[in-house]
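Continuing the batch. This is chain 6 of the set; chains 1 through 5 are on the previous pages. Same settings as before, nothing changed between runs. Recording input and output for traceability.
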Amino acid sequence: MQAAEVARAVLATLPGALCVSSLGTATSALRAASDDGPHFYFGAAMGSALAGALGVAEAVPDRTVVALLGDGEALMGATTLWSVAAYRPGNLLVVVLADGLYSITGGQQLNGALRFPEVGGVLGVAGTRAADYDGLCGVLRTVDRPAVIEALVDDRTWPGPSPFVDPARVRTRFEATITAGRESGTGQEQL
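Output for chain 6:
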């Protein structure tokens, strides 16, 4: 899969979800897949996106929250998985773009094999892998939550627009999306 294909699977399967993406590939992929939709794009602070998504999941418990993370980002913020395991938010999915590279900093290889689902499992959080679009859509629909999903990215083409965003604009649009969902009562996706 290509990173934007992973983001498209998330958006197609969970259309009402609140998406939080890490800097770099994940933000670029989500921007491309959603036509720059009103998601929470982390433009900096590598290693913080999962913690941010956990906060959103706690603040908006009636909405599914998806943390879309690059694997380098997930490694840098891996300690947050212990908090996910402790708080067990039933509305949080962690989707890791697994390509084995620190893409945003020049494509350096990650050390060791990726084992995000196994780490989640050891902590008591559901974990699984998906190697293609249809498999990922199926997992997104059926996996227990919280969960860690490792999405295999084997096409390393840069997914789309710049990952650098205007933080004030991102926050304003994301808050408006949450408010609109609360006012309409249609915040949760239909499965």
